């Protein structure tokens, strides 16, 4: 994944936002050949909505949404046990200037191929929203320039 543009997302299988997996998978299919990947980080910190094992999560995602993008081990995205990736990501502000803790499942961070956090999208922002796809395309254009 080094050098790829990444959309890092904390995910959960039993959340009202879980259908966003479908949009994330469509982004993966649309942009993968240009050096892009979605990366899912399962997290059980929000309402216990990701209680499964890594194997159960992978099976659910594959069978229900056809997920082909990489899924990491379950992590904490907030608090003292916050995964180091999220230590770096949460310092970046969203479009409203708000940094800090992840608010809920399906918060999205766009990261350049050299590790720079380019954008942060709150959970309610759909993966295929214009603001997300424009940012992905801009990052990919810069990568290939």
Q: What does the radius of gyration come to?
A: 14 Å
Order of helices and strands: EHEHHEEH
Q: What percentage of the residues does DSSP assign to strands (E)?
A: 15-25%
Shape: globular
Q: What is the CATH superfamily label?
A: Glutaredoxin
User: Largest sheet, if any?
Assistant: 4 strands, mixed
Q: Give the number of domains.
A: 1
Which CATH first-tier class would you pick? Answer: Alpha Beta
Number of strands: 4
* Fraction of residues in H or I helices: 25-40%
Could you please describe the fold and organization of this structure?
- The protein is of the alpha+beta class and about 140 residues long.
- The chain contains four helices and four strands, in the order E-H-E-H-H-E-E-H.
- The longest helix is centred in the last third of the chain and has 15 residues, at about 130-145.
Q: Helices and strands in order, then pairings?
A:
Layout: E1 5-11, H1 20-31, E2 36-42, H2 54-65, H3 84-89, E3 108-111, E4 117-121, H4 130-144
Parallel strand pairs: 1-2
Antiparallel strand pairs: 1-3, 3-4
Features:
4 helices; alpha+beta; Glutaredoxin; four-stranded mixed β-sheet; single chain; 145 residues; 31% helix; 16% strand
Describe this structure in a few short sentences:
The chain has helices at 20-31, 54-65, 84-89, 130-144, and strands at 5-11, 36-42, 108-111, 117-121.
């Amino acid at each position: 994944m080094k050098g790829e543009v990444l959309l890092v997302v904390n995910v959960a299988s039993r959340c009202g936002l879980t259908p966003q997996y479908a949009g994330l998978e469509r982004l993966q299919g649309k942009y993968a050949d240009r050096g892009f990947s979605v990366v899912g980080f399962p997290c059980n910190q929000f309402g216990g909505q990701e209680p499964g094992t890594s194997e159960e999560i992978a099976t659910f995602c594959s069978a229900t949404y056809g997920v082909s993008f990489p899924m990491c081990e379950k992590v904490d995205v907030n608090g003292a046990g916050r995964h180091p990736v999220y230590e770096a990501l949460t310092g970046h502000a969203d479009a409203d200037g708000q940094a800090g803790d992840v608010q809920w499942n399906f918060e999205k961070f766009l990261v350049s191929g050299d590790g720079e956090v380019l954008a942060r999208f709150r959970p309610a922002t759909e993966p295929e929203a214009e603001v997300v796809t424009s940012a992905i395309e801009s990052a990919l254009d810069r990568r290939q320039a």
